[in-house]
Design a protein that fits this description.
Blueprint: H1 2-21, H2 25-30, H3 36-59, H4 61-70, H5 82-97, H6 103-117, H7 122-135
C-alpha cells in the first residue's frame, strides 16, 4: 500500500505541475521533473502506477473536470486552488476509470494527500466532492 500511496503522491505532483506550468505530458511520464536518484530508486515498477494515473487523468481531463464541476456545491471550479484540483482530478480518474480500486480507498488516499499538501480545510472539501462523485455514479467504467 505504501507504494501505491507514493504513486498517488507522484501523480498528484505531476498533475499539479501540468496545470501550473503546462509541463508536457512526455516529460511528466518520463519523470524528468523528479530528482535522478529518486527516479532510479523507484525503478520502472515504481513509476508504472503513477504513470497510469497521470496519462489516464490527462486523457480524460474534460470528462473529469465536468464531473468535478457537477459535484461542486456553492463553489466555482475556476476558484479551486491547484493543490485541491490536482488531488480531485487524480482521484476522480480513479473513481471513474479504475474499477479495480475500491472507492473508499481512493477517497481515503485523497483525504490523506490533501491533509499533507493542502490547506487546513482541504481534506473536508476533497472528501465532500469525491463522495458526491462516488454517489452520483461513475461513467461507463462502473455499474
Amino acid at each position: 500500500m505504501a507504494g501505491r500511496r507514493k504513486g498517488r503522491i507522484l501523480a498528484f505532483q505531476a498533475l499539479y505541475a501540468w496545470d501550473a506550468a503546462r509541463v508536457p505530458l512526455e516529460d511528466l511520464l518520463a519523470f524528468t521533473w523528479l530528482e535522478d536518484d529518486k527516479r532510479e530508486r523507484l525503478g520502472e515498477e515504481g513509476i508504472a502506477f503513477p504513470r497510469l494515473i497521470i496519462a489516464g487523468t490527462i486523457e480524460h481531463i474534460a470528462d473529469i473536470d465536468a464531473r468535478i464541476r457537477e459535484n461542486l456545491t456553492n463553489w466555482d471550479f475556476d476558484r479551486l486552488n491547484r493543490v485541491d484540483l490536482a488531488i480531485l482530478r487524480i482521484s476522480a480518474y480513479s473513481l471513474l476509470y479504475q474499477t479495480d480500486v475500491h472507492p473508499s480507498i481512493v477517497i481515503d488516499e485523497a483525504i490523506d494527500i490533501s491533509k499533507e499538501f493542502g490547506s487546513d480545510e482541504s481534506y473536508r472539501f476533497v472528501n465532500a466532492v469525491l463522495d458526491s462523485i462516488r454517489k452520483s455514479g461513475s461513467g461507463a467504467a462502473r455499474p
